[in-house]
Design goal:
It is built from two helices and four strands, in the order ββαββα. By secondary structure, the protein is of the alpha+beta class. It has a domain at 22-73. A two-stranded antiparallel ribbon has the order 1-2. A two-stranded antiparallel ribbon has the order 3-4. The radius of gyration is 13 Å and the shape is globular. The two termini are 15 Å apart.
Length: 75
């Protein structure tokens, strides 16, 4: 697993992160966990035809969280 991110001040460059910190309510963490399960199921079911998905939160200000299929991302 690799975690990539963008700094708020320089959104144009993706960087590999060594650590990520989530500060979220329990309900948001459950929504995120459910999202990750759905992405894993989609990768298993659809293979390389599934590329990526964006997590959508109900919070007013929400960072972008994207899951990519590693078979597509590293190609």
């Amino acid at each position: 697993m690799q975690i990539y991110g963008r700094a708020q001040k320089n959104e144009s460059e993706l960087e590999i992160l060594s650590e990520a910190t989530l500060v979220a309510e329990a309900s948001t963490l459950r929504d995120l966990a459910s999202f990750l399960y759905r992405c894993a199921d989609a990768i298993d079911d659809q293979g390389e035809s599934w590329e990526h998905e964006h997590f959508e939160s109900n919070e007013v200000v929400s960072p972008h969280f994207v899951v990519f299929n590693p078979d597509i991302f590293n190609a």
